Automatic annotation (TrEMBL):
This is ATP-binding cassette domain-containing protein. One of its GO terms (molecular function) is ATP binding. SUPFAM superfamilies: P-loop containing nucleoside triphosphate hydrolases. It comes from Chitinophaga horti. The keyword Nucleotide-binding applies. Keywords: ATP-binding, Nucleotide-binding, Transport. Residues 3-205 form the ABC transporter domain. The keyword Translocase does not apply.
Amino acid sequence: MTISLNNVGKRFNYDWIFRGVSHMFEAKQQYAILGHNGSGKSTLLQVVSGHHHHNEGNITYTLNGAALDQENLYRHSAIAAPYLELVEEFTLLECFDFHQTFKSLLPGYKPREIMEVVGLEKAVNKQVRYFSSGMKQRAKLALAIFSDVPLLLLDEPCTNLDAEGIALYQRLIGQYGMDRTVIVSSNDPQEYSFCQHLLKITDYK
Ligand SMILES: Nc1ncnc2c1ncn2[C@@H]1O[C@H](COP(=O)(O)OP(=O)(O)OP(=O)(O)O)[C@@H](O)[C@H]1O
């Protein structure tokens, strides 16, 4: 997946969060959006994902040489972010079943196998509302990383993870992230050290 931003700007009310972002996110490359708290990293990620509209400029998505409408982007991308919650009433298995009505899992993987990889095998029939914050984060990352999509969007991916969880994230991204377009919004090198390309949001103020 290739994403091209041309002079993109976003404001909330009268406050411009960023302006003049012209950047190409290339297929199978990994990018980090960096900046201090409140600088607009999450906002840019949400503009790229289509969760927020931009106020100026344009964004084009290309998949295998063909233009992709933003309204169909969700089929080809997966996102893990603090503001996108799992359905609290679902068990973990129901979360995976629901997720698979929108996207396939990576070939050869079944939900229970993935749960084992991320250390959630004992939570298969537990409702998400009873998960710890770290368990929720592991589940969100598992659903995103194991989705069979060419674009992964990760906002503060190590939020609430312990040292073992951070090591797991780094292992998974090394194994399953490097042949996809990955965009990470982060302040923490542990979350983005694998990225070859760094984008400072403060360059667009
Ligand atoms: N829905 C909204 N309405 C108004 N202002 C908003 C909204 N969402 C974000 N903002 C503002 O936009 C700015 C950028 O916020 P954003 O969450 O993108 O920052 P961030 O760089 O991801 O921060 P952090 O590192 O703390 O997660 C902040 O000033 C924030 O208050």
